[in-house]
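Task 17 of the worksheet. Students: predict the tertiary structure of the chain below and write it out as structure tokens. Keep your answer in the requested format; marks are given for formatting as well as content.
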Amino acid sequence: MDGDARVRVRVWDLPTRLFHWTLVLLVAASVLTGKFDSLLGPSTLEWHKRSGLAILALLAFRVAWGFAGGTHARFAGFLRGPRALVAYARALAAGSAPESAGHNPLGGWSVVAMLTALAAQAATGLFLVQEDYGFQGPLARHVSGAVSDRLNAI
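Model answer:
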């Protein structure tokens, strides 16, 4: 067999694939409804709120699936420690990084960074009050105006 021959392997299970594409659609919807609310009409921020809540639900599913899902969906299957991360980064810089099914060590940690950033973004929206737009997150009444303003800055 030739050294360059590749074997096609299906890595992501159906729940993981659905998570990936649903997240893409929801993030796009959140960006559109958040940035273009003045063009899209008065109900846009309500749709923005719905997409943010759906993102939070999807992220909760992904965290659970990261412990209970298939081999490549589990965090233990693609998160590596600092030594593996540095070794992979060096190999990548040298042009000799090995191929891997699923996420490589840098990709695995980029997934964690992305999920964390999305969770922070969506979670802060739960507490926001935008008086100019008549928008209030579902948990805004539980925090002070100063806290809401700080979270809005995030």
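Marker's comment: The chain has a mean pLDDT of 89. DSSP finds seven helices and two strands in the chain.
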